[in-house]
Design a protein that fits this description.
The complex is a heterodimer of chains A (140) and B (241). Chain A has a domain of 87 residues: OB fold (Dihydrolipoamide Acetyltransferase, E2P). Chain A has a five-stranded mixed β-barrel. Chain A has 140 residues and is an alpha+beta fold. Chain A is 19% helix and 31% strand. Chain B is an all-alpha fold and 241 residues long. Helix content of chain B is 73%, strand content 0%. Classes of the chains: A alpha+beta (140), B mainly alpha (241). At the A-B interface, helix 1 and strand 6 of A face helix 4 and helix 7 of B.
């Protein structure tokens, strides 16, 4: 059997990855990673208040506000806008204009989230003006 | 100077060039200094895909030509590919923690398929260790080396097939939305890593050749006193040993 002991690590690793992925997909009902605001509004009936799902869109300019225990902002996909009430510290690079994916549930017309990640897009651009526009704001 | 030394010195030179461009290129307006992690992450992922492609080709060549050199190339390329897959996964986590706000995501297809690719190719190395006979080992691992390759396009294209947290494809598209200097730094490091791959391949295939010779010697020694209990490796089918 010692000939086969090297299979232990890859076998466990592959099984963990497959199970982890399947558990994630089965929790989401939809087989997509996140819903766009447009889809979330269209499928509002499928997700009653308290039913968790992921929602992703652009953080609208001028919509970001700090609250006592998190942030509030609006995500949009051009078609629809959804107001997000997020509890928890946002990631370091979270700001207006970036893509964001939140996890949580509807509460009437607002979406209450407790998980927030920044979705960086495939663009890599130097800042257009001098100075330090890529400096991370400390207040958000 | 031998082949290993020429390759090793060239690798040092191109790595220095890659480091220079990487340190000179402007930073992405959002990511800041975290941009530079890409200069290791993307070349590592490129080498992972390239390694497994070389293994695919070498595995097909073993099955058709039956020359052990192709088996050595296939094995060496997997060892190197597994290392660079791990490097791509780790640099991705280091980048993801500050930029995304998480270092791992169980729903992201790019991360899942790449992790799966990593474990399947570690499995390839485990398979090799479990088969003592060289010709049988070469044939069975060649089959896995061909079958497992489907994970490479699956990992690369995952960001196009489904929604992911991982960003889409930047460079290989007509309107590459990337700053010219950042692209130059990225491509120079992709080139530099490729020379590193060639250097590692040169060394690793030489080691594999030495291991094969040792195996033959010990098999010859073992065969004598043990009589019929042990048979020598089945090398008649192989032309170049």
């Amino acid at each position: 059997m010692t000939r086969y002991r090297w299979f232990v690590l890859p076998a466990i690793g592959a099984i963990v990855v497959i199970i982890g992925w399947m558990v994630f997909l089965s929790l989401g009902e939809n087989l997509v990673y996140y819903l766009t605001p447009n889809e979330a509004v269209e499928q509002r009936a499928d997700f009653p208040d308290g039913e968790r799902f992921r929602l992703g869109g652009q953080v609208e300019e001028g919509s970001l506000m700090e609250t006592d225990n998190g942030v509030e902002f609006t995500v949009s996909d051009g078609a629809h806008e959804i107001h997000i009430v997020h509890v928890g510290a946002p990631p370091e690079l979270f700001r207006e204009g970036v893509g964001a994916i939140v996890e949580g549930a509807w509460d009437g017309d607002v979406f209450r989230s407790d998980e927030l990640v920044v979705k960086h897009d495939e663009q890599y651009q130097a800042p257009e003006d001098e100075g330090h526009p890529y400096e991370v704001p400390t207040d958000a | 100077m031998n082949r290993h030394r020429i390759l090793g010195l060239s690798a040092l030179v191109v790595i220095a060039i890659g480091l220079y461009f990487g340190s000179q290129a402007p930073l992405d307006q959002l990511q800041g200094e975290y941009t530079r992690i890409m200069y290791v992450h993307v070349p590592s992922a490129w080498l992972a895909y390239l390694s497994f492609l070389v293994t695919l080709v070498a595995s097909i060549l073993w099955l058709t030509k039956r020359r052990l050199v192709f088996d050595r190339v296939a094995e060496s390329s997997v060892s190197i590919g597994v290392f660079f897959t791990a490097l791509a996964l780790m640099t991705g986590m280091i980048w993801g923690y500050p930029v995304w706000g998480t270092f791992w995501d169980w729903g992201d297809a790019r991360m899942m398929t790449t992790a799966l690719m990593f474990f399947v190719y570690v499995g390839y190395l485990a398979l090799r260790r479990s088969i003592p006979d060289p010709a049988m080992r070469a044939t069975r691992s060649a089959v896995l080396g061909i079958v497992a390759f489907f994970l490479v396009p699956l990992s690369y294209l995952s960001v196009l097939i489904v929604r992911t947290l991982h960003q889409g494809i930047t460079v290989a598209r007509p309107d590459s939305p990337i700053d010219g200097e950042i692209l130059l730094a990225l491509l120079s490091n992709v080139g530099a890593f490729t020379v590193v791959y060639l250097t590692f391949m040169s060394l690793k295939t030489a080691i594999a050749r030495g291991e094969e010779e040792l195996e033959e010697q010990s098999a010859a020694v073992d065969a004598t006193p043990a009589g019929a209990a042990i048979t020598a490796p089945n090398l008649e089918k192989v032309r170049d040993v």
